[in-house]
Write a structure and sequence with these properties.
The chain is mainly alpha-helical and 186 residues long. The protein has helices at 26-36, 40-45, 51-185; strands at residues 7-9, 15-17. A two-stranded antiparallel sheet has the order 1-2. Strand 1 (7-9) and strand 2 form a beta hairpin. The longest helix is centred in the middle third of the chain and has 135 residues, at 51-185.
């Protein structure tokens, strides 16, 4: 197997990059090894330091990392959906609260207007009652005055009739006396 010029063979068959970056993270060096030396995997299996095991752990870690990233993304989507739902619920509740408040204000205004109208109607009815009572008192006074006048007239008529009757009776009595006197002379 031929190795690329950027790698060298070490004492155990593990490839080592000439770059000083190899001294850093082994994940990045393994990634670089796989990139620069495609056939190095078979050499890594037989390595004394278990680079293959580390590579598999790296691959598993990448899979787990991708799994957790997917879960985080799903949770972020879920959280965003819950935020949107919460905003919708909040806006709906605020709208309902405003509608309820407007209805309460309208009912309060209608009740106040109705109370004012009824108060005005009550005042006008009280005034009408007072006027009717005053008219009734005036009519009673007028009736009493008419009754007193009629009583006076009746008394006057009675006294006049009594005088007329007395005069008539006296006149008849005088005529009778005169008639008796004529009859007695005859």
């Amino acid at each position: 197997m031929l190795l690329p010029s950027s790698t060298t063979r070490t004492y155990s068959g593990v490839q080592k990059l000439k770059s000083p970056v190899f001294r850093g993270c082994w994940k990045s060096s393994l990634r670089r090894q796989e990139t620069f030396a495609p056939g190095a995997r078979s050499q890594l299996v037989s390595g004394p330091f278990g680079v293959y095991r580390y590579g598999m752990q790296t691959l598993t870690a990448r899979q787990h990392e991708q799994h957790w990233r997917d879960q985080v993304a799903a949770l972020q989507v879920s959280l965003e959906n819950q935020r949107v739902d919460l905003q919708d619920i909040t806006s709906n509740m605020q709208r309902q609260y405003k509608d309820m408040q407007e209805q309460q204000l309208k009912r309060g205004a209608a009740t106040e207007a109705q109370a004012k109208a009824l108060t005005a109607q009550l005042c006008s009815k009280d005034q009408e009652i007072a006027l009717l009572q005053e008219k009734q008192v005036q009519q009673q006074r007028l009736h009493q005055n008419e009754l007193a006048d009629m009583t006076k007239k009746q008394n006057i008529l009675q006294s006049e009739f009594a005088e007329m009757l007395k005069d008539t009776v006296q006149h008849l009595h005088a005529q009778r006396k005169a008639a008796y006197a004529k009859v007695a002379q005859i």
